[in-house]
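Hello forum,

I keep getting stuck at the same step: I have a sequence, I want structure tokens, and every attempt I make locally crashes halfway through. Rather than fight my setup again tonight, could one of you with a working pipeline run this one for me? It's a single chain of 546 residues.
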Amino acid sequence: MDKRLLLLSLPATPLLAQAATATGQATSTPAATARPNIVYIMTDDHTAQMMSCYDRRFIETPNLDRIAADGVRFTRSYVANSLSGPSRACMLTGKHSHKNGFTNNEHGIFDGSQQTMPKLLQRAGYETALIGKWHLVSTPTGFDHWEILPAQGDYYNPVFIHMDGTRAADSGYVTRLITDKALTWLEHRPAKPFALFIHHKACHRAWLPALEDLELYEDRTFPLPPEFNDDYAGREAAGKTEMEIGKDMDIVYDTKMFVSPEETPRTRLSSSYQNMIGRLNKEERQRYDDFYVPMSRKFYEEWGTDYNFLPRQSESAVGGSTDARLLEWKYQRYMRDYAKVVHELDVQVGRVLDYLEAHGLLDNTLVVYTSDQGFYMGEHGWFDKRFMYEESLSTPLVMHLPKGLERRGLIDEMVQNIDYAPTFLDLAGAPVPSDIQGISLLPLLKGKAATKADKQKMKHWRDAIYYHYYEYPAEHDVRRHYGIRTDRYKLIHFYGHDVNTWELYDLKSDPHEMRNLYGQPGMEGLQRQLHQRLEELQIQYDDPQR
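Reply #2:
Ran it on my machine without issues. Output:
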């Protein structure tokens, strides 16, 4: 236990008092009276498939797995709106997008004057800090300290905005720098319970690895997802999108093939790509070019200098055709660079865990690791997110629990990112405002210390989650839609502009969501039930889209 926390004589929260009673520990001991700290680590576009405690097909993430092995792993963790800014707003407020006002990245500014969970933690006596990606346009509020990246930020030698409004570029790789700043803040934090929010840029597009990791995974051939060559039959909105690896992933921006045999290393660079790698100094740029330029020249020698986009997956991936081989080549490059970015992320999460352990903080700290949403790693032939289909609706969620929360292993109840705010407030012993729409996860985390009331809450846990995506027209052309996911079924309504269609999936028989059952004979009764449950949730969450 950190010596500064031992000096605190704060009243025990109801949770800690119950835990102490259950274990026979006196409530006057420091472990029982010091309120738990919170370290919330959130990444961008890190999907559960690329985290080995969820899926062992692709890569290894030993430090992220440490959290799950020592604590809990949620098997059905979802977002309310699969997009970076809106997802962050849901987390901060505990409310769906239509209630917190930040529905999309294109036309929104987060209203920082509204009630947020960090502000409520401050009122409860917590020191709060935010380091890393903000992506909500407005200036952060509710934090005693913050250092943020402007907009999406850069991977190499990034600029940070400081609380006084100044901007300064730091030398290094962004994932490492965010961790450095977080650990520096921990070293100098006040002697009071704290909530530290570490928000990483990784694993956002374009996937630029740490220079030391350029050679990683180059010998790895990643398996194609079973629905890689999806033809989108029966799913109109899916067929209209622009996020296919073949036809929509840019050969220069995304796979870094920016040099043909007769060209200099800077000839084909787009301005956005040049801005990203142009941040490297001369020696760093040479190291980068030494890796990608030979690969780029070899690519254009084999495939021709006019190559960029492929036809649709359904048209191109036939047998051993040239298009099919090119499509798989793009997939392998995408997977390798994404995996490299995850590798450094995993290393830096390990540094945070090591610090907390070395300073005696782990026993009294809730450590949460999650992402702002999931991501497609070739499923349906896609990259990106946005859809209510499983890969982007789902998000990884693992927690190391402080003493007093004794649950371990898997948690199968359906949870959502609107639940984080009430959970943190509940843990801090702060009242949860009635307008927060999420549910505290503490009853699921208590284990043997669960009360009769907790067990009743677990018994009657939510049977469905509600989702609403708004950003259209916009990049990737994913149509607006809302829907519900139950234990077994999913009902989605795509609406507006050029679509007005419903989709229904049986996730037990069709986990990859390839067969739209809506309107099929025999589905009438199920459809009525799901429509009714959808309307109930829209009324519960006061969403006018009904």
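Residues 235-336 form one domain. If your local run keeps crashing, start a new thread with the error log.
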